[in-house]
Amino acid sequence: MRLMIFGAGYSGKAIGKLLGSEGASVAGTTRSAEKGKALEDMGIRPFVFDGASLSEPLHAELSETTHLVQSIAPGSEGDPLIRLCGQPGIKALMPKLEWIVYLSTVGVYGDHQGAWVNEESELKPVSVRSVERVDAEQAWQVVAARAGLPLSILRLSGIYGPGRNTFMNLANGTARRLVKKDQVFNRIRVEDIASATAFLAGPKTGGIFNVTDDMPSPPQDVVTEAARLMEMDAPAEQPFETAELTPMARSFYGENKRVSNAKIKSLGFNFQYPNYMMSLADLLRSGTWNQRG
């Protein structure tokens, strides 16, 4: 397997680290040469990609790529990699390509007023960024169909893990217990994103899959549990309606749903961290809660 990760950030690094440990040859893009050192340290060959053009070394790497992870968020102009492929299509850029995975978000479902959703549920994106994700998912489906390639779309819930979690927020004083009646969110540990990608990459499985935990929960409950585990007082609860929030932070609370992961589990995939309680306990016990990749 010759893997290329477009946008080797938090999730991309976890994917590259896992598949590299399983014998894959892994490369990834970053926006600056300075950030490339972190990729090298993880065994990921770094390539600078500015979102607008491909360097000669990156072109050469893509000509040998067999498995593609696209993790770069789309913008108002659409998916940057699809734009670069142009009319010739992705096979002209990656002639040896065998499988594509696109990392999307459960935000594409929008607001279902707390009801359960699955991969067949209606997409009702609320925010501009979620609308762009729906467009990008559809564009990748067209690209993959034209090239005759299997495409996995992973719809991810709120990502956390080592170095990015509620313990970190408690430690730096930014944790808040915002309370909005009946609001719940799903979450996903970053290592489970990597494991799900590897699980699908082996047999080159195509389809849309929710990659999320088993326990959609009120966000304030997660802060309460993390504080309990750290043996510290949890911050006071704040009503969502009167809290000072950025427009983006407030928009997240406009989407309320419970996301099912039954489809990928029906294929035999097992989540290592199926709920936030066991996952937080693991992060603290292992000492990885404040380790950054």
Q: Which strand-content bin applies to the residues?
A: 15-25%
Number of strands: 13
Multimeric state: single chain
What order do the strands of the largest sheet run in, or round the barrel if closed?
3-2-1-4-5-7-11
Helical residue percent? Answer: 25-40%
Primary descriptors:
293 residues, alpha/beta, seven-stranded parallel beta sheet, two-stranded parallel ribbon, 12 helices, globular
Question: What does this entry look like structurally?
Answer:
By secondary structure, the chain is an alpha/beta fold. The protein is built from 12 helices and 13 strands. The chain has a 7-stranded parallel sheet, with helices on both faces. A two-stranded parallel sheet has the order 6-13. It starts with a strand and ends in a 7-residue tail after the last helix.
